[in-house]
Amino acid sequence: MSTESELRDWRYGPIQAERLCAAILDVEGFTDVDPQATLGGSDDKKDILARRDGALWVAAVYFPPTEKVFAEIKTKLIGDHEGVARHGATGLVFFVNKPLTMAERGKLHNAVEGGADLYHLERMRHVLDTPKGYGLRLEYLRIEMTLEEQVSFFSAANQRLTDQLLEAQRVTPARRVIDARRGHLQWPHRGRLKWPHLASVFVLVDVA
């Protein structure tokens, strides 16, 4: 079992497909991700609505469980693109769980006005096989992390924490003392803020 085969030979139905794609949009930086009619009913040419850089996008999900010829994929994309104008969106994000050659991607992009942001099989596999996608892969494909992936995951998490601490140092004009055992964030000469979710640690952060 691999991420590629689980996506390509999709056996989890349309509900899980739409939920997976909504989650991918979220980890890819889209905001206000809003699945429309995942549990049934008409979605009026918009499986998912989401925003990128403030602009509204329509997302369409096409996860057939069997092989489809390119013409069928193209017809589906053209039909789904109608939702862009209908809902005043900037563009279409099109998810399809089949491999596409570079030439086929170009044809799909040029098949509709303004093009389309394509999440084809290999692009989705890449998202799910990187640290930001491991949780989604486990939840929707039941594929656990390997030992090597666990190391990669925690390394990425540690880097994010380091980046956040460095950013905090840049924006804080004074020395900060965090005493999580007492459940407070102490700001010298500025009182205290509650910080209830930290473990029992004592951290000193000096600001240059």
Structure explained in plain terms:
The chain is 42% helix and 20% strand. It is of the alpha+beta class. The protein folds into two domains: 3-149, Trna Endonuclease, Chain: A, domain 1, CATH 3.40.1350.10; 173-208, no CATH class. The strands form two sheets. Strands 1-2-3-4-5 form a five-stranded mixed β-sheet, with helices on both faces. Strands 8-7-6-9 form a four-stranded antiparallel β-sheet, with no helix packed on it. It is globular, with a radius of gyration of 22 Å.
User: Based on DSSP secondary structure assignment, what is the total number of beta strands?
Assistant: 9
Give the H and E element order. Answer: HHEEEHHEHEHHHEEEE
Beta-strand percentage range: 15-25%
CATH class placement of the largest domain: Alpha Beta
Average of the residue pLDDT scores: 84
| Count of runs of 4 or more consecutive helical residues | 8
Compact overview of the structure:
The chain has 208 residues and is α+β, with helices and mostly antiparallel strands. Helices cover 42% and strands 20% of the residues.
Summarize the topology:
Elements lengths: L2 H6 L4 H15 L3 E5 L12 E5 L2 E8 L7 H11 L1 H5 L4 E6 L5 H9 L5 E4 L1 H8 L5 H8 L5 H25 L4 E4 L4 E3 L5 E3 L7 E4 L3
Parallel strand pairs: 3-4, 4-5
Antiparallel strand pairs: 1-2, 2-3, 6-7, 6-9, 7-8
Output the keywords.
208 residues; alpha+beta; Trna Endonuclease, Chain: A, domain 1; 2 domains; 5-stranded mixed β-sheet; 8 helices
